[in-house]
Design a protein that fits this description.
154 residues; alpha+beta; Pantoate--beta-alanine Ligase, Chain: A,domain 2; four-stranded antiparallel beta sheet; 1 helix; rod-shaped
Length: 154
């Protein structure tokens, strides 16, 4: 009886180092792309909240004008001076003062009023760039530069 040497092929069942590195790098790239798009979505969400806050102020100003012979508050230097106890937009016109979604010091809503109290402009900066403005004449929208008292014809 003749016995031949038979070669048994043993197949490696693991991954090579290069295969593992390629997979890890692909996962890293996909994770970074996801985080970048998620950050942009968060900025847009906060900007939507800011526009909603400005609409709350608009509603409160219109309610104030209805109760005060059609006139808006005058001689107010900022929108934060409008809101809260003892201010023109007390709890009878707005339930609570809106707070910026980031709660940072570098963000503020702006307010301008005409000398006679017959018009106003409220605005806020957007994280995605530009400003959102609302005028008493019904005009509202995104603009590129910070509004001034002349923007709405005040």
């Amino acid at each position: 009886m003749i016995i031949q040497n038979s070669k048994i092929k043993i197949k490696n069942l693991g991954f090579t180092l290069i295969e593992l590195l390629v997979v890890i790098s692909i996962i890293g790239i996909l994770a970074s792309l996801t985080l970048v798009s998620y950050t942009g979505a968060q900025k847009q969400t906060r900007d939507t909240q800011r526009r909603s806050d400005l609409n709350q102020y608009r509603n409160a100003l219109e309610n104030y004008a209805s109760a005060n012979s059609g006139l808006y508050p005058v001689s107010i230097s900022s929108i934060s001076d409008l809101c809260g106890e003892g201010n023109p937009l007390d709890t009878s016109f707005i339930a609570s003062c809106p707070v910026d979604p980031l709660n940072t010091e570098d963000y503020a809503y702006g307010f301008f009023s005409s000398a006679g109290g017959d018009a106003y402009l409220i605005y806020g900066g957007l994280e995605t760039g530009g400003f959102w403005e609302i005028c008493s004449n019904g005009k509202s929208g995104k603009i590129a530069i910070e509004p001034s008292s002349s923007t709405c014809g005040l």
